[in-house]
Amino acid sequence: MEKWEYEEQCWAQGLGLVCGCDEAGAGPLAGPVYAAAVILPRYIDIPGLNDSKQLTEKRREALFPVIQESAEAWAVAFVDAAEIDETDILSARMKAMQRAVDALAPRPDFALIDGNRDKGRSAAITTPHRCIVKGDGLSASVAAASVLAKVSRDHFMLEMAEKYPEYRFEKHKGYGTKLHYEMLDKYGPSPIHRKTFLKSWEGKG
Fold this sequence. Notes:
Layout: H1 5-12, E1 18-24, E2 33-39, H2 57-70, E3 73-79, H3 81-86, H4 89-102, E4 110-114, E5 129-132, H5 140-163, H6 169-172, H7 178-187, H8 199-203
Parallel strand pairs: 1-4, 4-5
Antiparallel strand pairs: 1-2, 2-3
Helix pairs in contact: 2-5
């Protein structure tokens, strides 16, 4: 991948520590939204690094520890289902990303944020930043964050699969698949379901 154009623009402005930030799990019916922030050493080559959605699960899992060991700093944060229901998913995404950035040590001078939104009704990105549409495919730092966020969330959902085996979370990770809706029909919502995401399911009941 080795895409450093956006980082280079920051470095040229004297912004020494630049993090990439991305989130995972905005769409599922269950579980938290996760976010990660990563500061990579300049021009580090991590073979196979790309937008997490372009990678197989096996490849993401292999990259996960490599990114953690290679990064100057990395952090993962989340906002759980109850908090998503209390606010809204856009605010929850922003809050998770800002939490991840805030957890970095050293603190970054600037953040590259995946997507085109930097605030919701009740939360916003407060670190100096730039939004990049499809940033996880254009910036090495954002790509690294996308992998950490996605794998961290998948690991959480596998833990939830053991806690609530009837929902088969290991199969769908909380996304609204046919199997997931069948399990909802059979068992109703679990404590980690997002009640505000179940309107279409309730509507067909």
